[in-house]
Design brief:
129 residues, mainly alpha, 72% helix
Length: 129
């Protein structure tokens, strides 16, 4: 009989690969931009930590007590950016800022609206003189 695995077990196996882990975390952060769920981000970090060697191993990478590292991963009150930064450092990753793709029509509409607003403001300011 074939052994059944949970989705999490399959995911842990998949993100044991460094490149896949990076892609997974990037996708989670993109989802966070939309849905604003820090719980999902924390669960994703926990999954990657487990896949990449576990709490004890990664705590060593940032000179942190494993119990403190573990509590940080489960603490919903700690600012997400702090948790993310520490865990990414332990994994050998870094947080980076990238421009939003210009293919996003909402962004282009927003930028156009700002340009129109700035032009209108400029015209209004010149009309006062």
């Amino acid at each position: 009989m074939r052994k059944m695995r949970t989705w999490r077990e399959c995911l842990i196996e998949r993100v044991a690969n460094r490149e896949r882990a990076i892609g997974y975390l990037q996708a989670i952060l993109e989802d966070y931009q939309i849905y604003k769920s820090p719980t999902v981000v924390l669960k994703a970090l926990q999954t990657v930590v487990e896949a990449q060697g576990g709490v004890v191993e990664l705590a060593k990478q940032v000179d942190m007590d494993p119990q403190v590292f573990s509590k940080m991963l489960s603490n919903k009150d700690m600012p997400l950016i702090d948790t993310l930064g520490i865990v990414l450092k332990a994994l050998g990753y870094q947080l980076s800022i990238q421009p939003i793709e210009s293919e996003n029509p909402n962004l282009e509409t927003y930028i156009d609206a700002l340009k129109d607003q700035n032009t209108s403001t400029h015209v209004a300011e010149n009309s006062i003189d």
